[in-house]
Amino acid sequence: MKVYYSISDFQNVSRPILTTGTFDGVHFGHKIIIDRLKEIAKKQNGETVLLTFSPHPRMVLFPNDHNLQLINTMDEKIKLLEQAGVDHLIIHNFTKVFSRTTSLQFIRDIIVNKLNTHKLVIGYNHHFGRNREGSFEHLKEYAPLYGFEVEEIPAQLIDDVSISSTKIRRALLSGDVSKANYFLGYNYLLRGQVVEGQQIGRTLGFPTANLKIADESKLIPSDGVYAVLVEVKGQFFMGMMNIGNNPSLISKKNSIEVHIFDFDSDIYNEQIEVRFFKRIREEIRFENLQALKNQLETDKATIKALFKSDELDNI
């Protein structure tokens, strides 16, 4: 997959079959659109093109709304779209000036003149342009005039899947990573740098890697303990992750930390990837550290049994 970081960088592509949108999550609903794109490209001897934007338009249009959390970082999205089989990915800088582009300007100047689109495929009820004024009806009106084709994915196909980025975010924020994974078609993940923590886990026999997530917009699942798979330097290990404020400890600082099973190496400052499988329990306040240690032993046994069972046979 070839990646472009501006619409103006895109050129010399044969018969572009285009779709556009934020594609946060690159979930099953998105893959319906991408698969249709690939099907058309194969029949019409074209190449698939996906136009997306960074930062997310809502972050530009509503800068004071700090509630938006994204399923994917841009690096994750690039990897997922490549795996989905997209030929060309355009990541265009979304600004307030760009947001004022009318639907007609978007069609004429971008879809036609800059991208030379042969056919445009959009999801059901997709809107674009200033104040979201553009619609499928608008595209149908102008497509014959500007010499491109347009197709809308039927509502029934999208409704049959019953998946949306909003539903996935809600599942993650409630701690239901199993449901989120089902909707996504892959395991939700966090990638971060290992930083120094309080090292209390080490005194209990459960040393943890504390993660610093660089992208502040990345959605962090609900507080609790999770069964996870951890990738360290290309190797995978079972583990358990705790997200929360450690209510049993004096410090109430919120943290994201993972205990990696059967692992004893110094990985400070390393980048690791954590893939979520199931939430084991919510955070609990314990009377003393021994009670906490006993629960950690139970959690570890539960997670090891879970990974050995058929329930997680997709890893």
Chain-averaged pLDDT: 90
Order of helices and strands: EEHEHHEHHEHEHHHEHEEEEEH
CATH superfamily of the largest domain: HUPs
Q: β content, as a range? A: 15-25%
**Uncertain ranges:** none
* Oligomer category: single chain
Q: What's the arrangement of strands in the largest beta sheet?
A: 1-4-3-2-5-6
N-end to C-end Cα span: 26 Å
Number of helices, counting only DSSP H or I runs of 4 residues or more: 11
Textual characterization of the structure:
This protein has 315 residues and is of the alpha/beta class. It has two domains: 2-163, HUPs (Rossmann fold, 3-Layer(aba) Sandwich), CATH 3.40.50; 187-312, Elongation Factor Tu (Ef-tu), domain 3. Helices cover 34% and strands 24% of the residues. It has a six-stranded parallel β-sheet, with helices on both faces. The protein has a six-stranded antiparallel β-barrel with strand order 7-8-11-10-9-12. Strand 5 (119-122), helix 6 (136-146) and strand 6 form a beta-alpha-beta unit. Helix 5 (103-114) packs across helix 6 and helix 8 runs antiparallel to helix 9 (177-184). It starts with a strand and ends in a 7-residue tail after the last helix. The mean pLDDT is 90.
Show the helix and strand layout.
Blueprint: E1 2-4, E2 16-20, H1 28-43, E3 47-54, H2 57-61, H3 74-84, E4 88-93, H4 96-99, H5 103-114, E5 119-122, H6 136-146, E6 149-152, H7 155-161, H8 165-173, H9 177-184, E7 189-195, H10 200-203, E8 209-212, E9 224-232, E10 235-244, E11 255-260, E12 271-281, H11 289-308
Parallel strand pairs: 1-4, 2-3, 2-5, 3-4, 5-6
Antiparallel strand pairs: 7-8, 7-12, 8-11, 9-10, 9-12, 10-11
Helix pairs in contact: 5-6, 8-9
